[in-house]
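Quick one: co-fold with fructose -6-phosphate.
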Amino acid sequence: MCGIIGYIGKDKALPRILSGLKSLEYRGYDSAGIAYVKNKKIIVQKEVGRISNLEKKINLEEDTYMGIGHTRWATHGEANKINSHPHTLGKFTIVHNGIIENYQSLKDELIKKGVKFVSETDTEVIAALLNENYKNEKDILKTILKTTKELVGSYALGIICTDDLEHIYATRCGSPLIMAQDKNGSYIASDVPAILNYTNKYYLLEEKEIAKISSEEIQVFDDNLQQVQKEMHTFEGSVETILLNGYEHFMLKEIHEEDTAFKNTLDYYVQNNKFKETMPDFKKYQSIHIVACGSAYYAGLVSKYIFEEYVNIPVKVELASEYRYQKNFYDSNTLVIIISQSGETADSLASLKMAKNAGIDTLAIVNVTSSSIAREAKYTLYTKAGVEIAVATTKAFIAQVTLLSLVALKMAQREDLLQEFKGIENYIQDLVNRDYLPYAKFLYQNNNIFFIGRGVDYALCLEGSLKLKEAAYINSVALAAGELKHGTISLIEDNTPVISVCTDASIALKTISNIKEVKARKAKVLLITNEDINDNFYDYKIDLPKLHPVVMSIITVIPMQLIAYEVAKLRGCDIDKPRNLAKSVTVE
Ligand code: F6R
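Sure, here it is.
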């Protein structure tokens, strides 16, 4: 969600800024812009839509050695050129990721002082406030400090000021920002992929710190303007890990990496069917709250069945955007588990902080190393899915379900069940390499598709349905199969597609009855099952291997992910960057 890149150095700046912006495309955006310095003047260019629109309008060979770039995901004001970043007011030009909650009252005050605004954004208010405060402070660092103290909300900011065209400034609160340096200059960026073409070494800017970067130097100050030393981090993957490598889309590439995501996650915590020291024991906890958003929430829902079955303790799974505003009942033995691929999701982070403030222990299940959620939690366990670029999560979901199952087995002291995880990567490979186009052809022209399942299959249906909505723009609804007849069955008519997942032998017969109910109303049924069913109550069937229940839910989602991918392709959707969506949801 919104991407920031800044470069100052010996090389021409625009190719680096453009390549950084392209590497941040996965975060989701609807306009892009740059500001660069030429002949001691700041020049701003912005375009609505894809970065390629901006690229067509700029001269990459421009004689400029310093600039900031931005991809905007519209929050305040529609996606048009005026609202796009960078925003300039007086001496300050800035790019911003986040939301300023008190921007309207700040704006009203500034208008009273005679400031004229051109956009509807909260960002322009920050630029105006910097410009106003600078009149008194006369020092850029002090001005940034004073300004950020007046802001309520979240921000990562890249700032340039006409009075100092030798430096780019940056600060953040609630939205991520990194800094990096190579032999040719220095960078600020929202995320590591933006700088990976040049270096894999980076520094994390902490909350409220202010960075001042020049061609040769990165200086960081705390909120007393004292200089602080930063620890250098190394990104473990390679540039190749964030390239398509011959795949048509990242979503497809990442589905094909699910065997590795599973295996790397397993191998990090388990060796020779025994838990390694990397897996802590949470057995002292007597109840669990799992809190997350979107697919991460569904991974939590899947794991609820595993925790309750094997650990035998109550597990409540909540959407972070609800959890943080509701009354939660904890006792000292409650563990709050926050699940997040990006580790930056605003509502998940706020829920984590809320539990922490209530004195409750927190465990983060996170994919992105050193992300805010990873750093904030008492315990952090990483999924080892690798970098995920496609907005629709796939391999990270598999890694989350894998890791949550391992946490449950450790708590349940069921090391004996670890042998069930052996060789699962081969089943994943088999499922990933099958042809799902025939099912996609059956589905792609429908605007309403239903998913039904019971128990853990219901949780997986919710994830399958979300994939179809986000990647293929099809309104699909996932229902607990037994709930269908309490209202929604009225929507079933001739040829309505119903996808049914049935992998839990203990309730398979009940699900089959529900399938027969929709079939009797002339629905067209695609059955995804590991049961040996040879009846003729379905139209299509995808056979899954029959694995132990503790690992079954790791693989069941794969056909649904690939069907969503194929359907999205047939419908000509923007598969890796679906409209309106962002990879890292840093707004509430
Ligand atoms: C769906 C998807 C989203 C995310 C959700 C949480 O494919 O990717 O629903 O799961 O935005 O994001 P993280 O896991 O980064 O907290």
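If it helps, The two ends are 11 Å apart (CA to CA).
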